[in-house]
Amino acid sequence: MVAWMGRQGLNLLVLSPKDEAFQRKEWRRPLTGEYLRELAGLARAARASGVDLAWGLSPLGLRERDREEVATAVRKFESVLGLGVDKLVLGFDDTAP
Hints:
Blueprint: H1 2-7, E1 12-15, H2 33-48, E2 52-57, H3 67-81, E3 87-90
Parallel strand pairs: 1-2, 2-3
């Protein structure tokens, strides 16, 4: 898909699926090795195609005043940045204001 995007002149893929538990309901759980390998492969393909890859986290139920909760979200972001993800998205869709 990213090769096609690059050929069309599209330059950004945002990966933030609502059905990915590790990015939403179960965001506190670490990403699996398999997920990280697949994401690294996607990041390489995106880079080769001239497409930036943004990875989104929608931390449902985040207690923003809880330092450990915030640290958990930061660690998750750091784990994907090291794989070649270009941009991060912090989404609060489907959360109470």
